[in-house]
Amino acid sequence: MRVPIFQIDAFTSRRFAGNPAAVMPMQSFPADEILQAIAAENNLSETAFLVAIEGEYRLRWFTPLVEVPLCGHATLASAAVVMEMLEPERERVVFHLASGPLAVKREGTRYVMSLPARPSEPCATPAGLAEALGAAPDEVLVNEFNYMAVIESEMVLRKLAPDMMTLARIGRPGVIVTAASDADYDFVSRYFAPGKGVPEDPVTGAAHCMLAPYWAARLGKQEFRAYQASRRGGEIGCRVAGERVELRGECAFYMKGEVEV
């Protein structure tokens, strides 16, 4: 069967920045091993698979190695595909996930989605983390999804060159590193997830579900301009609203085609 494929750079207004995601609308989901093989072939941090159901869409995300429970940038990219390519008259779309519905709306050139907040708590620095990062964290926090290392400055954060093999064994699927911004943003971050087949994710929506509550408590405000300082880089607007985190970002279309499965 032939399946449409779109590649979109999410959380950016220009091509070759942000986080690239593949989005593939399908008539129905094939076997999981086929979805995983497609994601591995695409070799992007995430491939999103969409199936239309009565005016809404079922949505699943796969890295090259595993299916993931939440992916912000591929959801943003999926919304752009629906509202700019498949149904350009729409201003809002609801995606159905294993965890429940997730709505995305269009506001001008940006897309806005509300995701569950991921609170965290302080913990002792895990053995090997400082050595793997090449920097000693000022503070480490944890939840079921990630460790988060808070470090002294944006300059140190940008220069990190982690030992990915060690990070893959650190005890959580990913490690977020964050610092206060030196310039135009409230905070900056990077995200490493070698255990999921993504050594460094360029821009990570789900990571900001942990970042935003932390910085809200630290800075005493609820709305932020954030920057993920990977090589590609990307901007995310964040707003903490109770137990939810609202994320805003733009998308740039890069490619449209078909694949044969």
Please tag this protein with its features:
261 residues, alpha+beta, Diaminopimelate Epimerase, Chain A, domain 1, 18-stranded mixed β-sheet, 6 helices, 44% strand, globular
If you had to describe this structure to a student in words, what would you say it looks like?
The structure is a single chain. By secondary structure, this protein is α+β, with helices and mostly antiparallel strands. It has two domains: 2-112 and 248-260, Diaminopimelate Epimerase, Chain A, domain 1 (Roll); 121-242, Diaminopimelate Epimerase, Chain A, domain 1 (Roll). It is 20% helix and 44% strand. The protein contains six helices and 18 strands. It has helices at 32-42, 72-86, 129-133, 154-159, 164-167, 208-219, and strands spanning 2-10, 19-26, 46-53, 56-62, 67-68, 92-97, 100-107, 110-116, 121-122, 139-142, 146-150, 174-180, 187-193, 198-201, 223-228, 234-241, 244-249, 251-260. Strand 3 and strand 4 (56-62) form a beta hairpin.
Give a topology summary.
Blueprint: E1 2-10, E2 19-26, H1 32-42, E3 46-53, E4 56-62, E5 67-68, H2 72-86, E6 92-97, E7 100-107, E8 110-116, E9 121-122, H3 129-133, E10 139-142, E11 146-150, H4 154-159, H5 164-167, E12 174-180, E13 187-193, E14 198-201, H6 208-219, E15 223-228, E16 234-241, E17 244-249, E18 251-260
Parallel strand pairs: 2-3, 4-6, 11-12, 13-15
Antiparallel strand pairs: 1-2, 1-18, 3-4, 4-5, 6-7, 7-8, 8-17, 9-10, 10-11, 12-13, 13-14, 15-16, 16-17
